[in-house]
Amino acid sequence: MLPEQHDILFSFLAIVFAVFGIFVFGNVVQNCRERKLSGSKLWLGIFGVFAIVSFVMTVHMFSLNQGDQLSFFFGIYLWVIILLLLAWGVFFKSNNIEGQSPPIVRGFFFWTTVSVLLAGYTNWLPQQRSDPPPKEAAVIGDVTMEEFAEMGRVIIFGAKQVAGQKSIGKGQCPLCHTFDPGDNMGRCPNLFGVEKRSHDRIKEDRYANLPMKIGETEPAAGIVKGMPSEIPEEYRRQNGPDELIGEDYIRESLMCPTCYVVKGFGKAGDTKSPMPVIVKPPISLSRVEVNAVIAYLQSKDTPGESASVTVPLPQDDAGNTGGAVVEESSDDEDRPVFVTGTEDIQAMINTLGCPLCHTIPGVEGAMGELGPVLHEKINAPKRIKDPNYKGKATNTREYVRESILKPGAYVVFNEEAGESFPDGLMPTTFGQMLSVEALEKLVDFISQTEAPAGS
Ligand code: HEC
Ligand code: HEC
Question: Whose CA is nearest to atom 41 of ligand 2?
Answer without folding.
Answer: 354
